[in-house]
Amino acid sequence: MAGAIRIIGIDPGLRRTGWGVVETLGNQLHFVASGTVRSDEKQSLAIRLCQLHDGLVSVIRDMAPMEAAVEATFVNKDAAATLKLGQARGIAMLVPALLALPIAEYAPNAVKKTVVGAGHAGKDQIRAMVTHLLPRSSFDSTDAADALAIAITHAHGRTFARLEARIVAELKDAP
Asked: 63-105 pLDDT, tens per residue?
């Protein structure tokens, strides 16, 4: 699509990092691709982080997005799990940054609220709405569906920001 903006959404995780790519043009949203980068649980943490890095580099180079959106880390009761998730999220932030992509971050509840309409929606609701909003979409994991939801959230945020900027500009030009 000429003039379209290609966005990659990334749902970080140490075992599985989901990714989803959409294109947005005005208020139109189109599915491009999605998938999951997996790390080998038998390997050391450092090797697993390298696997995530290499996988995301490959996806971003193949998909050529113009912007990235990453889900913010939530803190749970298991400090060790939260730390590992934070490290995977660091990779999810680092890779697009190294490839000179602008990066936006979205809280899980903001993604759910944008896509489903409720900040505490379940995985099934997210999958259903992603399928509804992107009828041609397919995903190999809930992580990939979540990544598409993150990309959708960013696309909607971009549309709102453009509208807001246009209104501000018109108000400045008004007599």
From this structure: 999 999 999 876 677 888 888 889 999 999 999 999 999 999 9
164 is catalytic: no
Q: Kindly report the length of the chain.
A: 175
Helix (H) or strand (E) holding 77: none
Using CA atoms, how far apart are residues 147 and 13, in angstroms rounded to an integer? 11
Quick check: is 71 catalytic? yes
Whether 41 is catalytic is no
CA dist 64 → 32, 67, 96, 133, 134 (Å): 11, 9, 11, 22, 20
Which of these is catalytic: 11, 23, 67, 146? Answer: 11
Distance CA 14, CA 84 (A): 7
Q: CA separation (Å) from 145 to 43, 97, 119?
A: 26, 23, 16
Q: pTM value?
A: 0.87
Of the candidates 62, 105, 124, 143, the residue annotated as catalytic is 143
